[in-house]
């Protein structure tokens, strides 16, 4: 009971009752019934080792072979061995990135009641703003973060009445979408697949940005629960606070921040489409006790009717044929029934 009392005291002193979003007030029951934190959980959340992801200089893509081919091979190798890598000299200027970050900070500093009415005050689709975990029954299930999910089609239609700067979001989204397309085509080529597949099937209507804020938290919690991404690939721009973690060789490791890099990770659809040539690995975000953290992710997705076929050369297919719509529906059904995503194992041959 002493540990629980100390936990509550720490929470009360650090957050107060007027935190934004109101995590303390909303989830006070979870804090009140929390037992001393489980060591296994802490081991998963507080990774002891910090690693630097494979770093790839995209300048080499503008050169002639063999440098260009070597760069492509490095991208494919990282996607196979890590499922994550970082790119530098990616072509998106520091000015564009900084304007995106300024825009993000400005939006999240809006009062909570404004963010909750995003369709009225932000001029984005209702349901774009999300925070916490409404279904959480214990602190281990609570995501200590808030986010805006903004479809690319919404970005192109933002008006002057929106708190968002349409020019800043549009320029960032356009350039990061182009980068995702380029990387996807390289990975397709190196896996022996049709590189034009993504131009034909990935549409703005199914791609989106997720703007994330992770408020400080006095105890170690997930900012974002462990998961894999249900897309082809994700491009992440983050600040220098740190908090991104992933599974490498069966253990959780922390990713070292890099101010010059964008971070790329493979999603479930690419793993299936490449017939396990590339890996979609579990990753999460953890909280910082004193600093807030910001990141923005671009999710490169196909149209809902796009069919994912798992075949490569003479290797038998690992997964059966399925559409993106079918995959999304199965994920939603599993989360509703079991409380978590099962993902690709549902679609094994």
Automatic annotation (TrEMBL):
Single GO MF descriptor: metal ion binding
Keyword Zinc: no
PANTHER family, alphabetized: 2-OXOGLUTARATE (2OG) AND FE(II)-DEPENDENT OXYGENASE SUPERFAMILY PROTEIN-RELATED
Pfam family, one: DIOX_N
PROSITE patterns xrefs: FE2OG_OXY
UniProt cross-references to InterPro entries, sorted A to Z: DIOX_N, IPNS-like_FE2OG_OXY, IPNS-like_sf, Iron_ascorbate_oxido_reductase, Oxoglu/Fe-dep_dioxygenase_dom
Fe2OG dioxygenase domain location: 205-302
Any one GO biological process: gibberellin metabolic process
Keywords: Dioxygenase, Iron, Metal-binding, Oxidoreductase
Name of the featured protein: gibberellin 2beta-dioxygenase
Stretches of the chain forming a coiled coil according to its record: none
Species name: Gossypium raimondii (Peruvian cotton)
Gene3D superfamilies: B-lactam Antibiotic, Isopenicillin N Synthase, Chain (2.60.120.330)
Enzyme nomenclature, EC number: 1.14.11.13
Enzyme class: oxidoreductase
Family: Belongs to the iron/ascorbate-dependent oxidoreductase family. GA2OX subfamily.
Swiss-Prot/TrEMBL catalytic activity: gibberellin A1 + 2-oxoglutarate + O2 = gibberellin A8 + succinate + CO2
Taxonomy, superkingdom: Eukaryota
């Amino acid at each position: 009971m002493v540990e629980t009392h100390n936990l509550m005291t720490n929470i009360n002193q650090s957050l107060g009752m007027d935190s934004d979003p109101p995590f303390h007030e909303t989830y006070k029951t979870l804090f009140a019934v929390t037992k001393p934190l489980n060591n296994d959980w802490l081991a998963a959340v507080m990774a002891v080792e910090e690693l630097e992801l494979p770093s790839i200089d995209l300048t080499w893509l503008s050169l002639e072979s063999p440098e260009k081919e070597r760069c492509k091979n490095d991208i494919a190798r990282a996607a196979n061995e890590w499922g994550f890598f970082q790119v530098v000299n990616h072509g998106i200027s520091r000015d564009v990135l900084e304007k995106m970050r300024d825009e993000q900070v400005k939006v999240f500093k809006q009062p909570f009641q404004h963010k909750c009415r995003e369709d009225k005050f932000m001029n984005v689709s209702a349901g774009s703003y999300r925070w916490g975990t409404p279904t959480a029954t214990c602190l281990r299930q609570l995501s200590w973060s808030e986010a805006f999910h903004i479809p690319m089609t919404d970005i192109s239609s933002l008006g002057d009445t929106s708190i968002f700067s349409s020019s800043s979001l549009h320029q960032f989204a356009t350039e990061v979408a182009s980068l995702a397309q380029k990387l996807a085509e390289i990975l397709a080529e190196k896996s022996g697949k049709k590189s034009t597949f993504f131009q034909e099937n990935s549409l703005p209507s199914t791609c989106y940005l997720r703007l994330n804020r992770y408020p400080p938290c006095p105890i170690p919690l997930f900012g974002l629960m462990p998961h894999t991404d249900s897309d082809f690939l994700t491009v992440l721009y983050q600040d220098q606070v740190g908090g991104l973690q992933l599974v490498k060789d069966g253990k959780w490791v922390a990713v070292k921040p890099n101010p010059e890099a964008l971070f790329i990770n493979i999603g479930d659809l690419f793993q299936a489409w490449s017939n396990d040539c590339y890996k979609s690995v579990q990753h999460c975000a953890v909280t910082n006790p004193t600093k807030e953290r910001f990141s923005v992710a671009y999710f490169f997705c196909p149209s809902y009717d796009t069919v994912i076929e798992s075949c490569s050369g003479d290797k038998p297919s690992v997964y059966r044929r399925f559409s993106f719509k079918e995959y999304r529906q199965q994920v939603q059904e599993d989360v509703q029934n079991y409380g978590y995503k099962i993902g690709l194992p549902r679609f094994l041959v």
